[in-house]
Amino acid sequence: MRALVAYLSYSGNTKEAAELIMLQLESAYFHVDMHRIGIDPPIDAKAYDVIFIGTFTWDMGSTPDEVKDFVLEIGYKPDHVALFGTGDTQFGGDDLFCKAVDKLVSFYQSRWEGLKLEQSPRGSQETIIEQWVEGVIQHVGILA
């Protein structure tokens, strides 16, 4: 099985979450390609059994422009996209926390609930990531 983990990260939190997702996928024998949104060359989304897209939420609940450009780069709405993101409830409170993840889950009509992490994915949030990825993996296995 092939997986793409694409992410946009300014502070390093979303990158760290992407790396944890990659490691878990590799331990489940997925071939994983990492893609830094806005930096790496375009990808062929059709080459993957599952696509993970990670982002942070920008300016009052917005999806960063680089992520919007990546969505356009894909060029269609694949039905095997799982979304994750990092946020900070101290800026905007619960209403805006990881709002970009919610917007992308809705846009893609994702099979999976979006994974939302408070700032760094360390500590107890690593377990949350593991459980979420396991749920995605199980579902991908059913689709294959």
Automatic annotation (TrEMBL):
InterPro entries, per the entry: Flavodoxin (IPR050619), Flavodoxin/NO_synth (IPR008254), Flavoprotein-like_sf (IPR029039), RNR_flavodoxin (IPR010088)
Keywords, ordered alphabetically: Electron transport, Flavoprotein, FMN, Transport
Physiological role: Low-potential electron donor to a number of redox enzymes.
Organism annotation: Oceanobacillus limi
Family membership noted in the UniProt record: Belongs to the flavodoxin family.
NCBIfam families: flav_RNR (TIGR01754), PRK09271.1 (NF006747)
Protein name: Ribonucleotide reductase-associated flavodoxin, putative
Cofactor(s) demanded: FMN
Record has Electron transport as a keyword: yes
Domain Flavodoxin-like: 3-137
Domain of life: Bacteria
Entry keyword Flavoprotein: yes
Annotated GO MF terms: FMN binding; oxidoreductase activity, acting on NAD(P)H
Classification via SUPFAM superfamilies: Flavoproteins
